[in-house]
Amino acid sequence: MSGTNHRIDGKRLWDSLMAMAEIGATPKGGVKRLTLTEVDQRGRQRFAAWCEALGLTMRVDAIGNMFARREGRDPTRLPVLLGSHLDSQPSGGKFDGALGVIAGLEVMRSLNDLGITTEAPIELVNWTDEEGSRFGHSLMGSGAWAGIYPLDKVYGLRDVDGVTVEDALNAIGYKGEAPAAPFPADAYFELHIEQGPILEREARQIGIVTGAQAQVWYDAVVTGQDAHAGTTPPSARRDALVCAARIIDLVDRMMRARGEDGRGTVGQLHVLPNSRNVVPGEVRFSVEFRHPDTAEIDRLAAQSRARPASSPATAARPCS
Q1: Which residues contact 139 (CB under 8 A, 6 or more apart)?
Q2: Which pTM value belongs to this model?
Q3: Which of 141, 188, 288, 290 is the most buried (most CB within 10 A)?
Q4: Is the pLDDT of residue 85 over 70?
Q5: Helix, strand and coil in the chain, % to nearest 5
Q6: Smallest Cα–Cα separation from 141: which of 161, 108, 168?
């Protein structure tokens, strides 16, 4: 087999991607497969059925990570891992995450077609909740597996409806018996879409990852005073949403001050009491900064911890 250039079945890969995209399909052509929901369960079940049809051995760990193993010639060799995730953002793309999992599946299928037995075993991985959109904790499954996040803490995380991670795992039947603990591996490969415009803008079809974005997340709360919209004059208002808007503008300016490498996002906003006739009394929102330079993230974090209303970069009027 040395020197032979084998190819996968591109049409089969495409068809499988389209079949997975049917689960949680959205009107705009994307998917909504929030982690540990019934929709995610259906995606997992389809993936498991595909793996079982290939004769792969499936195991699920305590955080719901799925590992499908194809044995190698030498059982003493460390496994080579392939994979990504099947969960998505609320308005996710059909290739985000799924490409890495299903491309790995196509590698397994092609090896079977060609009758090739690799020296080392290969394991295909579907990580639980890489997106972090439901429970507010990205890379949750891989982080728990790696020992970065204590499992008990992860189990206690709640979504906006108060459902815990542990309850959600049990509800869809994916709290597995295998320990969520790292094991030695030879290598890990993950094929992923870029998700941004740079490759397309530069007319390039493929790129090589040279690093990852360091990031910091905050859950911000602005407290003002509920008041009647028709009777409360400007001098008596403590509008939490106006204050939040100034902070959101500050996040954007902090990002843009760092050029094309800067990233600053407020993607989640909850306004209370959320009535058109009431001055908002409380606003809860997310703040996220990313940057490829860890030192720059540390500077952003330090700047963020300062009271936004007292910063020279904010509007002259204080939040209160």
Answers
A1: 127, 130, 132
A2: 0.79
A3: 141
A4: yes
A5: 35, 20, 50
A6: 168
